[in-house]
């Protein structure tokens, strides 16, 4: 999808929300992401996650023949591998991922590759975002949780010797513009069951969701931003 959108857009940032790297071979994923970055002229932002318990967690790890244990270390090492490959590395040795004789990789549009954001809001995820990632893409429904989380991310960045401004703050929000709040919620309920395996009333407890007329959506979004 991103490869199809890249040549027919000019200004929009293209991104993943969020890519689950354990579902893909790490070296091939690095090549694909570099290709999209090239096609878009450097407009790609890659948000990644390790999955969470439930429909997108352990069952997919089992199907991918990847252990659930140490999934966060695997994620961080995959991102480190991508960055090394985009700089021209031909080998990589982490605790989990080990590769020698990596063929010349597709180089991205930008010298260091696209920025990589982390999706997650646990204390460990906030600390890792500040230390290792270029952006933060959480999905909390409560603006206060976002505010406190961003403060923790920036504190972790400062402790790691990074500038807090090096981390892009972002927010994942599911939006449905519809003729009314009721019809929008019905559509989002269908989407929640199909994509997350849970009804909307459960999903909105953990994920930011806005629906209704354009005016209502804009009003809710502005109040959340404040």
Description:
The strands form three sheets. The protein has a five-stranded parallel beta sheet with strand order 1-2-5-6-7. It folds into two domains: 2-169, TIM Barrel (Alpha-Beta Barrel); 174-225, no CATH class. The protein has helices spanning 2-5, 26-39, 58-63, 71-86, 123-132, 143-159, 181-196, 200-203, 214-225, and strands at residues 14-19, 44-48, 92-93, 98-99, 116-118, 135-136, 168-169, 173-177, 208-212. The longest helix has 17 residues, at 143-159. The protein has nine helices and nine strands. The protein is an alpha/beta fold.
Number of helices: 9
The chain-level structural class is: alpha/beta
N-to-C span: 33 Å
CATH topology of the largest domain: TIM Barrel
List keywords for this structure.
globular, TIM Barrel, single chain, 44% helix, 2 domains, five-stranded parallel beta sheet, 226 residues
Summarize the topology:
Layout: H1 2-5, E1 14-19, H2 26-39, E2 44-48, H3 58-63, H4 71-86, E3 92-93, E4 98-99, E5 116-118, H5 123-132, E6 135-136, H6 143-159, E7 168-169, E8 173-177, H7 181-196, H8 200-203, E9 208-212, H9 214-225
Parallel strand pairs: 1-2, 2-5, 5-6, 6-7, 8-9
Antiparallel strand pairs: 3-4
Short description:
With 226 residues, the chain is of the alpha/beta class. It has helices spanning 2-5, 26-39, 58-63, 71-86, 123-132, 143-159, 181-196, 200-203, 214-225; strands at residues 14-19, 44-48, 92-93, 98-99, 116-118, 135-136, 168-169, 173-177, 208-212. Helix content is 44%, strand content 14%.
């Amino acid at each position: 999808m991103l490869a199809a959108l890249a040549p027919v857009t000019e200004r929009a940032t293209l991104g993943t929300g969020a890519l689950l790297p354990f579902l893909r071979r790490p070296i091939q994923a690095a090549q694909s992401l570099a290709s999209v970055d090239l096609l878009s002229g450097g407009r790609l932002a890659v948000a990644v996650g390790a999955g969470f318990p439930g429909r997108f967690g352990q069952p997919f790890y089992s199907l991918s023949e990847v252990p659930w244990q140490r999934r966060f270390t695997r994620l961080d090492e995959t991102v480190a591998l991508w960055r090394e490959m985009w700089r021209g590395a031909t080998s990589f040795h982490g605790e989990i991922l080990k590769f020698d004789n990596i063929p010349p990789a597709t180089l991205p549009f930008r010298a260091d590759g696209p920025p990589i954001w982390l999706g997650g809001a646990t204390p460990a995820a906030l600390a890792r975002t500040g230390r290792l990632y270029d952006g933060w893409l959480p999905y909390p429904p409560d603006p206060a949780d976002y505010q406190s989380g961003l403060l923790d991310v920036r504190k972790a960045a400062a402790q790691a010797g990074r500038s807090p401004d090096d981390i892009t703050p972002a927010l994942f929000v599911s939006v449905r513009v519809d003729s009314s709040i009721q019809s929008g919620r019905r559509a989002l309920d269908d989407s929640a069951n199909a994509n997350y395996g849970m009804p909307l009333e459960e999903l909105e407890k953990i994920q930011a969701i806005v629906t209704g007329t354009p005016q209502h959506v804009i009003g809710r979004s502005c109040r959340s931003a404040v």
